[in-house]
Fold:
Amino acid sequence: MNPLSWLGARRQVLNSEQQARLARLSAPQALDDTPLEGCRLVVVDLETSGLNVNRDRILSVGAVVVENGCIDLGSQYECTLFQENHRVTESVLIHGIAPSEVARGVAPADALLDFMSFADNAVFVAFHAAFDQRMLQRGLRQTLNTRLRHVFLDVAELAPMLYPEVTGRKTLDDWQDYFQLRNSQRHHRRRRPGDGGDPVDPAQPGPCPGDCNPGRAERPPAALAPPAPGKDRQSVGVVFLIAED
Structure:
């Protein structure tokens, strides 16, 4: 295999239906004086074939909405992408996505159109967001021939600013420990983000084909607001259960 083959990767030709869906995508939230509480936030995590942003590919997308100051576990997105000639690497030890699942995945163009429709005009949130942003940007460019214009917020950078009194915490595990959160399903895409409960049924009815599931389970939202003096800080830290590093 030519190690420089990614330089000449061909962009996919969209059919008329995909082109129409692309044209209907919402413009992203503008960088203006809109309060954060008034923005639709989408916490996103990508699982990829590796860590090379120029060569590796997106294998799955998971996301959940934060709106009106609440994490809505009933509004989430989950999808495995089909990738031709996918090869197993050491990254499978982290994400656990078998080649057979990738083989049954959704075509990348349809999966990314589904995801961007779900995201709407959202501001994206992630832990170490630069990687997810660059991978999504490249995926959209190669698959849909469009640019990623949405803003990304990096929780890894925001947390120390919001909690300057906390020192020596750099990793996602560090922050989850600080907020006294327990998440036994890190990187496990078969469970709802931050849930830790029963596995998601990939056959759950939904508008997407294959293994693509923008779920709307009836689950109470978890509060996301700065803690008042003397209050438990867990309501703020619960977002760290969703953001993956």
About this structure: Strands lie at 41-48, 58-67, 70-80, 123-126, 152-154, 222-223.
